[in-house]
Write a structure and sequence with these properties.
Strand content: 15-25%
Structural class: alpha/beta
Number of strands: 5
Shape: globular
Length: about 110
């Protein structure tokens, strides 16, 4: 596991990412959270070329970051900003990594909220 800071514009969703339905309308809360608090969890991916990284875990976060960078009124988020990415070997089982990130989540109990 190696965390590297990669330019947002070099990141793309990997084919191994389990989410195939890009529900952009469901990104509103995540966009607001990242805008207010910053990115709280790194992305996971592999090098897919000299200057590109395919993201296998964190696709929604990547979509939210791209939406923030596309918003011209946002000065804090740019396509050139550096994003923490856990760079893994391409031979790893990236579909399983994506599945594990999405399936093994437990919603916060209402009493904890």
């Amino acid at each position: 596991m190696t965390i590297e800071y990669m330019s947002l514009k070099t990141l793309s969703i990997a084919p191994e990412n389990m989410r195939k339905t890009a529900a952009e309308s469901d990104l509103g809360e995540l966009i607001a959270s990242i805008s207010a608090e910053g990115l709280l969890q790194n992305l996971v991916g592999y090098r897919d070329g000299d200057d590109t990284v395919a993201i296998t875990a964190g696709g929604r976060r990547l979509r939210a970051l791209n939406a923030l960078a596309a918003d011209k009124s946002s000065k804090a988020f740019r396509a050139t900003m550096k994003i923490p990415v856990d760079i893994r070997d391409r031979a790893e089982l990236h579909r399983e990594i994506s599945l594990a990130e999405n399936v093994h989540r437990l919603a916060t109990h209402p009493m904890d909220e």
